[in-house]
Design goal:
Chain B: Belongs to the complex I 24 kDa subunit family. Chain B: Its cofactor is [2Fe-2S] cluster. Chain B: Keywords: 2Fe-2S, Iron, Iron-sulfur, Metal-binding. The complex is a heterodimer of chains A (about 425) and B (about 160). Chain A is built from 18 helices and eleven strands. Chain A is an alpha/beta fold and about 425 residues long. Chain A is globular and about 80 Å long. Chain B has two domains: about 60 residues, no CATH class; about 80 residues, 3-Layer(aba) Sandwich (Glutaredoxin). Helices cover about 45% and strands about 10% of the residues of chain B. Chain B contains seven helices and four strands; from the N terminus they run H-H-H-H-E-H-H-E-E-E-H. Chain B has a four-stranded mixed beta sheet, with helices on one face. In chain B, strand 3 and strand 4 form a beta hairpin. In chain B, helix 3 packs across helix 4 and helix 6 crosses helix 7. Chain B is elongated. The chains are: A alpha/beta (about 425), B alpha+beta (about 160). Chains A and B meet through strand 5, strand 11 and helix 13 of A and helix 2, helix 4 and helix 5 of B.
């Protein structure tokens, strides 16, 4: 039974402390109950259950998992591949790392369920190079699963249910978190995004239909199968079911990973002792950067009644993204903060498409000008149209989300931008071509 | 890669059946196995030959992926975070202290070849700022004194595994 206000994804964390890869202990704690149940079910009923669960993709884009699975289910062509995106690179996020560290078999079970659903021969876990120390843990978990015949040939004694999982290492490229770039990287190429469409569920890894889901999404799958879609949805809200792993960082007392029910009041997360515990500096909290560097920024003062849920945040033009909450107090100037964000994107742009390659640099230059208070009238307008260009013209999610935090900041703190402009100087007009 | 023999290198390549699609994993493993912390040209050529791609393709990977290096690295590469969450919650203490203690700027090696520090975007230790990461080990929640202590411990060779 899963109930609100109780750990779901992190339920096994303490109990598996001695050895997170211990498969016997894992099985005693509901481990593989999902897989055992799914093989008794009708596959279309499983898809219906996923739809009922309203599991929104936990990597950041919040794409409904049910929809993605259904697309792949009806996609033509075999073999189909299962890929787990563990290239967690959003600054301020470490939930996937924690999941892999403490309950790797949950992810493996989720991927094996996917393997069964799509008759896939092979799954891949693409894990970022910075998490090298986690490879060992994952490898050990895979060996355990193979020994217990949860991977390999004729899994659970079912003839023809052959499936295995490989670990692939990334090597320090944020853009590889983009699913098509990730697939290129698995194929041994440089990790630059592909032009989409076609959808990866039709043409993915080695040009075969491919499912790419985030670590946390896979960990949720066994819970949905075990407990049913409706029970899973009840853990969250109407528009997004389940619990969410959140990463609290910045100027809060209790930094770290927490599991919350979707629909928990945001102020509880910030101020209650159970979660954030309020400001660590004694100064009032000013803004929250949601979901990593590519996410939007919200002003704490305006979010008193906001619920931490997909719909609750959408209503405030915010988003859950990866689950990161970078909380900053009022000593941080929004322009300084955005400079840091812009520097990150200028560094991580893969260079494939011009709007992102050049645009991220121009955005950074503009913000540096604001920071030095050297901006002239007209600069703000040029800056805003640059944000629009980069968002609308970039080829992949990286470029398209560079401006998210900046656009929300312009709305929330216009006075800080205004102060950066020297109104005594001549106006600069955007040069159109 | 002075410390790796040709046989040891081949062993790593064989671990991946010299599969060209696994070239990235091969390069990462090679770099981590060597004490030099980078892929020298001879090794790049060996990998290219063994997996059956051109040397240019191997260098395309090395230059694209930030973890792979083509130049010799310091004995201890101190990684610090340069992303927003850390920068505004304590990281400057680390970069300031390191600059002061080591007397070099970011990305510059100390004259004795022992240390180099550089900022990278997020290692997933955001809840432990200020930290320093060396290889796979994170030294979390550092104070100014602890940073001084860590450097002198490293100089004294107290962390042989790093």
């Amino acid at each position: 039974m899963v109930v609100r206000n109780q750990a779901v994804l992190t339920a096994r964390f303490n109990k598996l402390q001695a050895d997170p890869t211990d498969i016997d202990a894992f099985c005693q704690l509901d481990g593989y109950a999902g897989l055992k149940k799914v093989v008794e079910m009708d596959k279309t009923a499983v898809l219906d259950e996923l739809d009922r669960a309203v599991l929104l993709g936990r990597g950041g884009a919040a794409y409904p998992a049910g929809k993605k699975w259904r697309h792949l289910f009806y996609a033509k062509g075999q073999p189909k591949y299962i890929v787990c995106n563990a290239d967690e690179g959003e600054p301020g996020t470490f939930k996937d790392k924690t999941l892999i560290e403490h309950d790797p078999l949950a992810i493996i079970e989720g991927m094996t369920i996917a393997g069964y659903m799509f008759d896939s021969p092979q799954g891949y876990i693409y894990i970022r190079g910075e998490y090298r120390n986690l490879h060992r843990c994952l490898r050990k978990a895979l060996v355990q699963a193979r020994t217990a015949n949860f991977l390999g040939e004729n899994i659970l004694g079912i003839t023809g249910f052959n499936y295995d999982i490989k670990i692939i290492s990334g090597a320090g490229a944020y853009v590889c978190g983009e699913s098509s770039a990730l697939l290129n990287s698995i194929e041994g190429k440089t990790g630059r995004p592909r032009v989409k469409p076609p959808h990866l569920a039709d043409v993915g890894l080695y040009l075969q239909p491919t499912l790419v889901n985030n670590v946390e999404s896979y960990a949720n799958i066994p819970v949905i199968i075990r407990e049913g879609g409706a029970a899973f949805k009840a853990l969250g809200t109407e528009k997004g079911g389940g619990t969410k792993l959140i990463c609290l960082t910045g100027h809060v007392k209790n930094r770290g990973l927490f599991e919350v029910n979707l629909g928990t009041p945001l102020y509880d997360i910030l101020y209650s002792e159970k979660y954030g515990g309020g400001s660590s500096t004694g100064r009032p909290l000013k803004f929250i950067h949601f979901g990593g560097q590519s996410g939007p920024i919200g002003a704490v003062a305006q979010l008193k009644d906001c619920l931490y849920s997909y719909d609750g945040l959408w209503a405030n033009n915010l988003a859950i993204g990866s689950g990161a909450l970078v909380v900053m107090d009022d000593s941080v100037s929004i322009i300084d903060y955005l400079n840091s964000v812009a520097a990150f994107f200028a560094h991580e742009s893969c260079g494939k498409c011009t709007p992102c390659r050049i645009g991220t640099l121009r955005i950074l230059e503009a913000l540096e000008k604001f920071q030095k208070k050297e901006a002239v009238p007209g600069d703000l307008e040029v800056f805003e149209s640059m944000l629009t260009h980069v968002t609308q013209l970039s080829a992949c999610g990286l470029g398209q989300s560079v401006a998210t935090s900046m656009v929300s900041s312009l709305k929330l703190f216009p006075e800080e931008f205004e102060l950066a402009i020297n109104r005594q100087t001549a106006e600069q007009k955007e040069v159109l071509w | 890669m002075a410390n790796l023999t040709i046989n040891e290198k081949n062993e790593i390549i064989d671990r991946y059946q010299a599969n060209p699609e696994q070239a990235l994993n091969i390069l990462v493993d090679l770099q981590f196995a060597s004490t030099d912390g980078y892929i020298d040209q001879k090794t790049a050529q060996l990998v290219a030959k063994r997996v059956g791609v051109t040397e240019t393709r191997i260098y395309e990977l090395i230059s694209f992926y930030a973890i792979l290096k083509e130049k010799t690295q310091a004995r201890y590469v101190l990684k610090i975070c340069n992303s927003a969450p850390c920068r505004f919650s304590g990281e400057p203490l680390v970069s300031r202290s390191l600059k002061e203690i080591l007397g070099v700027n970011e990305n510059e090696m100390t004259a004795d070849g022992l240390f180099l520090y550089h900022g990278i975007p997020c290692v997933g230790a955001c809840a432990q700022t200020p930290f320093i990461k060396i290889k796979d080990r994170v030294f979390p929640n550092l104070t100014a004194q602890q940073i001084v202590q860590l450097i002198s411990d490293l100089r004294a060779g107290r962390y042989p595994a790093l």
